[in-house]
Amino acid sequence: MTQTDLIIIGAGPGGYRAAEWAAKAGLSVVIFEQKHLGGTCLNEGCIPTKCYVRNAEAVEMMRQAQTFGIHYDGPFDFFLHEARDRKEQVVGTLRQGIETLLGHPNITLVRAEARFIDAHTVGDYQAKAVIVATGSVPKCLPIEGAALAIDSSDLLQLDRLPESLCIVGAGVIGMEFASIFSSFGTKVTVVEFLKECLPAIDSDIAKRLRKALEKRGVEFCMQCAVKGIKPLTESGERKEVTFEDKKGKLHTVEAEQVLMAVGRAPRVFTHFKNGGFAYSNRAGIEVDDHCQTTVPGIYAIGDVNGRQMLAHAAEAQAKIAVRNILETLHSPGCQLTLDGQESMDGLIVPAAIFTNPEAACVGKSEDQLKAEGAAYECRKAFHRANGKAMAMADTEGMVKLFSEPGAGRILGCHAYGAHSADLVQEVSSLMCRKTTVGQLRNMVHIHPTLSEILLAAAES
Ligand code: FAD
Q1: Sign of the CA dihedral running 284, 287, 292, 297
Q2: Cα 269 to ligand 1 centroid, rounded to whole Å
Q3: Are residues 104 and 125 in the same domain?
């Protein structure tokens, strides 16, 4: 049995960042990865989808070319296999970067599946501290014909554009793919059980975003429960999805591909029982605010704890876990030098949905503030009144800024429209510094930029 300071299971954004920080602080680290370095985020999630988002933007620019005085003869072609090749190149380059990062002399990379023998023994290694960062897997509805549907990873591997796509679920993944594939020219239908898409985002913003996608041709069937999928042809090339509306009436939609996008579940294994830690009611590994499981010294970060399934949340949790490990592990040569938050309590985590138009949020939505009975002010500003948005011919969008009464501390910002993620990132930074709307009003913003929309909201 080989002794080490820290064992990490999984080299996604949670795992590889934890390895980097722990190694730089002087710990000896063993990191297991059974598949590709970079995890879901790099190989099947954030980066591949954002490559396609860029392709989709390029296609939309071509469609709007005349707005900018650009004229060309005849239609243009878009080839999915070429977009896929570009995506693979980007992913390959970034994977190489992670390999270099994990080449640190304090890190041993084990390319194999890690199995818990007991709480502090994983495979052939033993350590006082273990970080579980095994990520998540796609969920699937228990319906007849579910095997005919594909998941987001399969969709990213297609080399031929489907003529039609039915997406089950209007969460972040469903909405991003609806936007991407409708830009590519696929006929997209989204079937969603809830009244509105994107439950984590302000319902007013979510509705406007859905309407914007409808204008681009995406069909939404809201408050509809999918009942089953069946093949229409012997080869299964066309499928029929049956769903029931809120009045109990059955409907069907035909599609070449059906994407199951009903959320993701923490990736846990039966051998985890040897670790002895408990699970939360969200089916993830139960952790406290320091990311520690119910077994001291064993931490679980990222999607596997089911708290916030976002790459940057996994990274933030990696830092919290490593900070706590450094403070409890007094290993020779270990420097307690990692800055940052020690706990998830009060951690501000913004989120974005990379549709066209983009949407993003940080902090409370108006729905949450109302439900809590909180005293708040809501200020709005619109892309259509912003000079830069007009110059960009990208005027669809709105920002909602929430604060304590009297232009007090900012409580949240939910937005949709061009570069919403960047706008919300500014608000997120301000919230980290407990900034008030009054202070935001006095911060000079570059002209002309979309960030002036925030200023306009603060001044409204
Ligand atoms: P993962 O990235 O899933 O990494 C876990 C790693 O552990 C994997 O490489 C896996 O092979 C490995 N592993 C598992 N079990 C074992 C074992 N027993 N032994 C060895 N290795 C093991 N998030 C964003 O913030 N922004 C986005 O734009 C975004 N877009 C997304 C789009 C899609 C289509 C999807 C599916 C997800 C997206 N996400 C996005 C979510 C993001 O990918 C995850 O939140 C993030 O990858 C979680 O990181 P993680 O380190 O917890 O796990």
Answers
A1: negative
A2: 16
A3: yes
